[in-house]
Amino acid sequence: MKSENYLRTLYTKEKGWFWFGLTVAIQIVLISVGYIVMNISL
């Protein structure tokens, strides 16, 4: 029972890190694209 709960916590944590990493990656891409577009415009 205890190990099952531990695994579930670990899985949720991994999932959380995955979504966190994905969000950060998307933000970096959007900032990079915006920066490039601004430089081309200027």
Automatic annotation (TrEMBL):
The chain crosses the membrane at residues 16-38. It comes from the Bacteria. Keywords: Membrane, Transmembrane, Transmembrane helix. NCBIfam families: KGW_Acineto. This is Uncharacterized protein. The lineage of its organism: Bacteria, Pseudomonadati, Pseudomonadota, Gammaproteobacteria, Moraxellales.
